[in-house]
Amino acid sequence: MRPVKILREGDTIGMIAPSSPSPDKKRIEKAVKVIEEMGFHVAVGRSCYEKWGYFAGSDDTRANDINRFFADPEIDGIFCMRGGDGAPRVLDRLDMKNIAANPKVFLGYSDITALHLLFNQSAGFITFHGPMPVTEFIATDFVDYAYDFLRKALMSAEPLGEILSPEGAPPLEVLSPGEAQGELIGGNLSLICALMGTPYEIDTRRRILLIEDTDEPNYKIDRMLTQLRLAGKLHDAAGIVIGGFTNSEPQDPNKAFPMNELLKSILLPIRKPVLMNLPFGHGPYKVTIPLGARAVLDGNNGRFFITESGVIDS
Question: Which of 213, 204, 283 is nearest to 238 (CA)?
Answer without folding.
Answer: 204
